[in-house]
Each structure stands twice: as structure tokens, then as C-alpha cells.
Specification:
The complex is a heterodimer of chains A (304) and B (452).
Chain A: E1 6-9, H1 15-32, E2 44-50, H2 54-64, H3 74-89, E3 102-110, E4 120-132, E5 135-146, E6 152-163, E7 189-193, H4 197-205, H5 210-213, H6 215-220, H7 230-241, E8 249-255, E9 263-273, E10 279-287, E11 294-302
Parallel strand pairs in A: 1-2
Antiparallel strand pairs in A: 2-4, 3-6, 3-8, 4-5, 5-6, 7-9, 8-11, 9-10, 10-11
Helix pairs in contact in A: 2-4, 3-7
Chain B: E1 26-33, E2 37-38, H1 48-63, E3 72-75, H2 87-94, E4 103-105, H3 112-126, E5 131-138, H4 149-160, H5 164-171, H6 195-205, H7 210-229, H8 255-259, E6 263-265, E7 275-276, E8 284-294, H9 295-300, E9 307-316, H10 329-340, E10 350-353, H11 358-369, H12 371-376, H13 398-401, H14 408-423, E11 425-426, E12 429-430, E13 432-439, E14 443-451
Helix pairs in contact in B: 1-2, 3-14, 4-5, 6-11
Classes of the chains: A alpha+beta (304), B alpha+beta (452).
Chain lengths: 304, 452
């Protein structure tokens, strides 16, 4: 699917304003019962000439466990594009409530490296509105190109679920088969995540979603404690895969049980090699060493 | 002019020993560094590990070493956080090299980088390894700051305390003065004098003029700027954090501008104070790497062989009791190394004398020209000789490039190897270069490289 007609924004939208606006919209819809329809916005949003801040980049790299190189980590690009994706979900014609949406999966294709010195054109849109046994889901797509270029160097598809929201005319798929039981392997790493993990990631990603910030702000949104940001977890797993992934790779993650903070997270990374020893892909799975529940899993694979 | 090193302590006769094994050659394949940045500049937030990895990844990309298992990697940093105990191995793990590449850290103050080259070259010569990467990194911006000695003891005791009353008792010892952090400085632990103050004494002792120091600084900037203009560093450097040139380089500096600067060291010497910010190296951040190999390994990987690492020598002086200047050890190491190979200054085509301060270089040159010093202190028959200034630091050195302590050795080795390769043969023998690096603690490491 290609991007719908673009609305070009003058600058990257402010996430904090978007969150305030989302809260206001949620309150208004609750009061007025207004319903905006069953169609996704027909426009994409685009910002041109975006440049990453080097201080922010370095702080992100250090937090995630990446070396502070000049190449933007794929997860950093996700954070860079996220306000634009949020602005699409913040449109008046967006049919689902933004707050409380659950990040189900994230797929990134990094076709070529992006340097922090480069100006970037970023475009984001929503597509593939569809049913889910627990509500309604959709994909937020973001594409990053070098300024003025046609070639997409980074493409991210984030699938979100609006839990408990069922839109008329959108079929509910038959219930998924019960997930296969998870047996934890021997871990290759053990992460100690402090209670400030969410705040630390918010300060480098700019994503100040209250569910990640503190116990109180998370409780206000119905969670018992704050939870780690999914992209923080997935980005750390990507950093752990390391330099063997090269410049061009795909990176997928599927989120399951949230990580309530503070937490210990066990991780296993396995490498799949070709017969000549060349790296093909790394597969990772993370779980709670306490409960044995799976938190997330995914893979990083060579595009070559 | 053959040199007779009667008082030298080096193994002068080793080359002729019947028991000496047949050694292979260790060659310099090439190098890569990131531009050096003045402290508080472009690399302020970059750690030693970040910068070393950046330099390493540039080297890997230049020579196609992705997934390669290198024999050994050695590097180091002078200002090092205690958490960076395995700095080099961590940088290797973060790089595109095979994760099965072993690594170790070296620390010999400003001689660290050159010492990694010599140590690894020796392993290659002995046949222990076929390939190696030497390097060094330093950040004066991201320097470690320790807690005060008082607070450190309290924290350790607190950790050992088992009960709440014990803990409270330990904490009750805490005083406001314990909270003052302990930042690193360039002072010598045994004298309390900074390196600049030490050099100011030496500079005055050897009667080095302000004009001569400023001229050396000017030449360093002029030569480095010309080297950049000629594209000399195109295959020795990868940009990092927006820098593609050393940020300390002042291509437009003039002798007049340098003459206008106020002295910063040796001010208690009154009229003799000659050392300014212009003729002293600034605190700098940066990293450098050098790829070394056996000839066979280089050939098998279709890589260039720029120069061979002929030999090296270390020396140290008793600066604590004022016998010699803090940074004068290379004055002793060089004649010993030359004597071991039966060489004189006339046999050297390039002199790379690290410019810790212009006064250091000039004091060393003056010592070698001084008959009495050479006779009484070096045990020679007369003056060692004069260094032809046209052969000295011809592509600039630390005064212009800056001096991230442990990274300077790698910068010089890669630069010299490239110059030697371009020069090729001189009078039917390979072009030869001498490297001299002074270091804190009254130490110095010197080396000779030959064109391959």
C-alpha cells in the first residue's frame, strides 16, 4: 500500500501538545459521545528536512547500550518519526481513541544507514484498519528518506490495538488459537530495570506517555504500576544483537506481557548462520525470570 | 656519524647473538583515527569507548575487516573510568570485528599508543599473532571524577556495616568536605607540579626562547593545514560527530598572533616565562588506531604494507629530584635506539617528535646538540647532532592537531608509515623515520619505522 496524499507540516509536531490534545479529545468524545466514523484518515503527514539532535542521539545511544556512532540506531529513528505518527492519530477524522492504545508489533526495515548529519524527509500515515478479537487494530506506517530522495532508507510499521473498541462494519476475526505455551530457555542476558527506566527513555525519545513515567501517572490510566516502553525494550535487544547486523537489516518485535517497573528481564539471543558462517539473523525472546511469562520476542535479519 | 652508546643500558649486542631467533617483520598496513576535538567541543558527550569504537569501525571499513578475527587488539586511555577496565575489549565487542578477537588495555601515559604498537609488533615478529590493531583514546571532556577519599572510605564501610545502628554510626562520620569531588589533573603525584610547570623549568634550563617556541607552533599549524589541503589525511581519518578536521587546527594563525598570547606556565620565572596556550597543546578528545600485520597476512588479505616497525626503546628520568626535566626521557631513549642499529641522525628521513609543548621538542633538540650533556649524560663522545628542521614533523604534530594522550602514538605511527611509503627508497636503503614521545612520570618511548 502506498502513502495517501500528503499534508506537509512545517515542523515536527510536539508530542506533549499531542498528548494534551489526545486527552482533551478523549474527554470530549466521552462527554458528547461523538463518533468520528469507521474510516482511517485519507491523508498522510509529512515533515521535510528533519535533523536529529546530536546531544539527544548520544544520550539515547548510551541509554540503550549502543556505541555513540554517527549512524542513527533504528530505534532512534522510530522515536524521531513517532511524533508524526502521533499527529496522524490525533487528527479529528481518526476513528479510534489514541490514549490507551496497545502496541502489538513493530516491524522495521532499515535499507541503508542514516547519519545524524543528514536532513531527512519523514512521512507517516495510518492503514489497514481491521478487527481483532479484543477490539480494533491498525498499522501506523512511517517512512524516512534522505531530504529530496526517493529511496526509502527506513520504514516502520507499528500495529496498535484499541482494546474494547469495535467499529461497525469491521469484522471481528475468529478468536485466535490459544498461544503456544512458553518454556523459558537459558538466558544469555539479565537486565535490571530500575523504576526510573520509563522516565529515562522518555527523556531521550521525547515520548512522555504517562503510562511509562511513574506509578501515579500510570495508575491514572488504569495500570497498577508504570511499564517499560516497548520500543526501549526492543531497542535494547537490537543493541545486544550488535554490529553483526550491518547496515541493512530488518527488525521485528511482538509484544506480549508488559514489563512492570522495576523489573528483572531475562533475555535469550540466538544466532542463525549460513553454512559459510555468515550471519543470517538473530532471534530474541525476553521473559520474566520471576513469573516465566514472555514479555516480547522478535528477530533481526540480514537484508543481503 | 656513528654513535657510540657506551653508557646505554639497552641490549646493544642482541642482534648478533647466536641464540636470537629468526624474526619475521611486522608491517604497518594503515591507520584510522577520528579528528581530534578540543575539550568541551564536538565529543563532549562521547565516551572513550564511543570514540575508540568509532576509530576502530573506520579502520574496519577501510581495510574490509568485518567479521575478521584479528590476532589481538591493544589500546588504552590515560584518563580512564574504573568501569572501563576492559575498555579495548568492549570497543572490539561493539565493533564489526569478530567477537572472537581478543583485546587488552595498556597504560603508559602519553606513550600508551606507541607502546601498543611496539608490543603488538613484537608479538607479530615472534610469530605469536599474524595481525593486530593498536590504538589509544582519551577524553578530557568525559573525564572520570572520583568521590573524595573520605567519602570513599565511608561508602565502603557502609557497605560492610550489617546493622542499622552500624550504618548510622558510619554515616555520622560524613562531613561536608567529604562531598567535594576529586577531579583528575595533570599534576605529577610526586612533585605537585603540573606538566606545564615542569616543562617551564626545562624550557628555562635549556634557554629556549619564546620566538623559537612560537615558530615551532606556527610550523605545526601550517604543516597540518597543508597536509589537509593536500588530502593527506583522506585515508587516515573518518569524520565523527560532525568533525572532519582537528578542531584545534588554526590554518590562519600567524607568528604575530602567537606572539600576542600571554604566558600561562612558568609565570613565577618572571621574564623567562615563555610558554603560552599557543605553544602548548590543549586538552583534547580523540582516538586513533593502527593495523599491523605480518607480511604474509597482509599479502593474503591483499592489503598494503606501508612500513615495517624496526624497533623501539623506552627510557625514564629522575625528574623527582630535579636531575632531568619531566619530559626529557626521549633524549636518552633515542641515542640508545640509534646505537643499537648503528644509525645516526643522517640516516633518518623523518623525525616525528611529539609536541607536548614546543619547549619539549626544542629542549630535546638542544640537549642532543649539547656536547657536555651528550658526553656526561648520554655517554657519547660528543654531541649527538642536529635534527634537520626540514625533516621535523613535516605534516604537523600535536600543537596543531591536539593531543588526546593515548591517541597520539597511533596518529603519529599511521602518519609516518604513510610518509615513509610515499618516500620509498633513499640512497638505496628504505626511508627511515624516528618517533619520539614523552610521557608523564618522566618516561619516554621512541621507535624507528622503515619504508616497506
Amino acid at each position: 500500500m502506498t502513502a495517501p496524499q500528503a499534508v506537509i507540516l512545517g515542523e515536527m509536531p510536539s508530542l506533549s501538545k499531542l498528548y494534551v490534545n489526545a486527552a482533551a479529545t478523549a474527554a470530549r468524545r466521552r462527554l458528547l459521545g461523538a463518533h468520528t466514523g469507521t474510516q482511517l484518515p485519507g491523508s498522510s503527514h509529512e515533515v521535510r528536512g528533519v535533523q536529529a539532535g546530536v546531544a539527544n542521539l548520544t544520550a539515547y545511544q548510551h541509554l540503550i547500550g549502543e556505541t555513540a556512532s554517527d549512524v542513527l540506531p533504528a530505534g532512534f529513528i522510530h522515536a524521531l518519526t513517532f511524533p508524526l505518527s502521533m499527529s496522524v492519530m490525533n487528527r479529528d477524522d481518526f476513528p479510534l481513541p489514541l490514549l490507551g492504545m496497545i502496541h502489538l508489533t513493530n516491524k522495521v526495515v532499515q535499507s541503508a544507514p542514516v547519519l545524524f548529519t543528514e536532513a531527512l524527509d519523514i512521512r507517516a500515515w495510518a492503514e489497514n484498519l481491521r478487527g481483532h478479537r479484543a477490539g480494533t487494530q491498525l498499522d501506523l506506517v512511517a517512512e524516512v528518506r534522505g531530504a529530496g530522495e526517493d529511496f526509502v532508507r527506513w520504514r516502520g510499521v507499528s500495529s496498535y490495538l484499541a482494546k474494547g473498541v469495535f467499529l461497525p462494519g469491521i469484522d471481528k476475526p475468529s478468536p485466535a488459537a490459544a498461544p503456544a505455551g512458553f518454556t523459558a530457555p537459558n538466558p544469555t542476558a539479565l537486565w535490571q530495570l530500575g523504576v526510573d527506566t520509563g522516565r529515562a527513555y522518555a527523556s531521550v525519545s521525547g515520548d512522555f506517555n504517562p503510562i511509562h513515567l511513574s506509578v501515579l501517572s500510570a495508575k491514572a490510566l488504569g495500570l497498577r504500576r508504570s511499564i517499560a516502553h516497548g520500543m526501549y525494550l526492543a531497542s535494547r535487544a537490537l543493541a545486544d544483537v550488535g554490529a553483526m547486523k550491518g547496515d541493512a537489516f530488518s527488525w521485528d518485535v511482538a509484544f506480549e506481557a508488559p514489563v512492570f517497573l522495576p523489573a528483572r528481564v531475562a533475555l535469550d539471543i540466538g544466532t542463525v548462520q549460513a553454512e559459510d558462517g555468515a550471519w543470517l539473523r538473530s532471534e530474541y525472546v525476553a521473559w520474566s525470570p520471576h513469573s516465566g511469562r514472555k514479555h516480547f520476542s522478535g528477530s533481526v535479519a540480514s537484508l543481503k | 656519524m656513528p654513535v657510540n652508546g657506551t653508557s646505554s643500558t639497552g641490549p646493544t649486542a642482541a642482534a648478533g647473538s647466536a641464540a636470537a631467533p629468526q624474526l619475521r617483520r611486522a608491517v604497518v598496513v594503515g591507520g584510522n583515527r577520528i579528528p581530534f576535538a578540543r575539550t568541551g567541543g564536538a565529543y563532549t558527550k562521547s565516551s572513550n569507548q564511543d570514540m575508540l569504537t568509532a576509530a576502530l569501525d573506520g579502520l574496519i571499513a577501510r581495510f574490509g575487516l568485518q567479521d575478521e578475527r584479528i590476532g589481538e587488539v591493544a589500546a588504552g586511555a590515560v584518563l580512564k573510568h574504573s568501569r572501563d577496565f576492559n575498555l579495548t575489549r568492549e570497543a572490539v565487542l561493539g565493533s564489526a570485528l569478530s567477537a572472537e578477537t581478543p583485546a587488552y588495555d595498556v597504560q603508559q601515559a602519553c606513550a600508551t599508543g606507541l607502546e601498543t604498537v611496539l608490543g603488538l609488533a613484537n608479538k607479530i615478529k615472534l610469530g605469536q599473532i599474524d595481525s593486530a590493531i593498536a590504538g589509544g583514546v582519551d577524553s578530557a571532556s568525559d573525564a572520570p571524577i572520583a568521590v573524595s577519599e573520605g567519602l570513599r572510605e565511608i561508602l565502603l564501610d557502609l557497605n560492610r556495616a550489617k546493622t542499622l545502628p552500624q550504618r548510622l554510626q558510619v554515616l555520622s562520620r560524613l562531613r561536608p568536605k567529604d562531598l567535594a569531588p576529586d577531579a583528575p589533573n595533570t599534576g605529577e603525584p610526586r612533585t605537585g607540579l603540573s606538566m606545564g610547570e615542569h616543562q617551564a623549568l626545562t624550557t628555562a634550563q635549556w634557554k629556549i626562547t619564546r620566538e623559537a617556541q612560537d615558530e615551532l607552533a606556527y610550523n605545526s599549524h601550517r604543516n597540518l593545514a597543508a597536509a589537509y589541503d593536500a588530502g593527506f589525511f583522506d585515508d587516515l581519518l573518518t569524520p565523527y560527530r560532525g568533525l572532519s578536521k582537528d578542531s584545534n587546527l588554526r590554518a590562519d594563525t600567524t607568528p604575530e598572533k602567537l606572539a600576542g598570547l600571554k604566558p600561562v606556565f612558568g609565570k613565577n620565572l618572571g621574564a623567562a616565562a615563555t610558554m603560552t596556550a599557543g605553544n602548548s597543546t590543549p586538552l583534547t578528545d580523540g582516538a586513533s588506531t593502527v593495523l599491523l600485520a605480518s607480511e604474509d597476512w597482509a599479502d593474503a588479505h591483499d592489503l598494503p604494507k606501508l612500513a615495517t616497525v624496526l624497533d623501539g626503546e623506552a627510557a625514564a628520568v629522575d625528574f623527582v629530584h630535579g636531575k632531568d626535566g619531566l619530559l626529557m626521557a626521549p633524549a636518552f631513549a633515542v641515542p640508545r635506539l640509534l646505537a643499537r642499529h648503528g644509525l645516526s641522525f643522517a640516516d633518518i628521513d623523518f623525525f616525528e617528535i611529539h609536541e607536548a609543548f614546543a619547549g619539549t621538542v626544542l629542549s630535546t633538540l638542544a640537549a642532543w646538540e649539547d656536547e657536555e650533556f651528550c658526553r656526561t649524560r648520554l655517554g657519547l663522545d660528543g654531541a649527538l647532532g642536529s635534527v634537520d628542521r626540514a625533516k621535523l614533523n613535516v605534516n604537523g604534530s600535536s600543537l596543531a592537531a591536539g593531543h588526546p594522550f593515548a591517541a597520539t602514538g597511533g596518529r603519529i605511527v599511521a602518519t609516518l608509515a604513510k610518509m615513509l611509503h610515499a618516500k620509498g627508497q633513499v640512497d638505496g636503503r628504505p626511508a627511515r623515520g624516528l618517533i619520539s614521545i614523552c610521557a608523564a612520570g618522566g618516561q619516554g618511548v621512541v621507535a624507528i619505522l622503515e619504508a616497506h
